[in-house]
Known about the structure:
Strand content: under 5%
Order of helices and strands: HHHH
Structural class: mainly alpha
Shape: globular
Radius of gyration: 12 Å
Low-confidence stretches: none
Number of helices: 4
Largest sheet: none
Helix content: 55-70%
Distance between the termini: 13 Å
Mean pLDDT: 83
Amino acid sequence: MNDNLFNRIEEKTNVSKDTIVSLARKLQEGDYKNTNTLREIIHELSSITGKSVSEEKENKIIEMIVNDKVPNNLDKYV
C-alpha cells in the first residue's frame, strides 16, 4: 500500500500507519483463517478507532476473510 492510502486512512480514523503496520504483522504471523485470531484483530481495531462493530458485521468480515472474498482494491472503500 502506498503512503497516500495510509494518509487517507489516518485522516478518517486517526489510526497511524505504524499501528496499521503492527496489526498487519499480527495477521501475517497469525493464522488469518482462524476465527479467534480475526475476532481479536477486529476487536483491537474497534478499540483503536472507537467504532463499534456489531456481531453481525463481525461475522460478515470474518466470513469474507476466511472465504478469500476480500476485494483487492480496498482503497476505494476508504
